[in-house]
Fold this sequence. Notes:
Elements: H1 3-7, H2 11-19, H3 25-29, H4 32-41, H5 45-66, H6 68-84
Amino acid sequence: MTIAHAEIPDSSMALHGAAAPGFDPLYQIIPDIPHDAAYAVHFAEGFITWAVTSALDDTIGLGLGLMPIPVTGKIILAVVGVFKGKKAGAEKH
């Protein structure tokens, strides 16, 4: 497993966690999409369901995994700036 795989959360876990407190529209819609796609094709339904589910999970998971990067970068820059005695985000001239 690479770091990229470890950093990308499973979107079905994230959607399930969001559905518990009441944010469930995506949790109800996302599972229907692969089944509708497989029904529309009428062959290889298991493969189509798996492929569409994987594509949705990967896309949503990648988006969720990328969200904290800017925030984390700003926090790290601020901490480094404190130790170097500079303002956070100040550029060298």
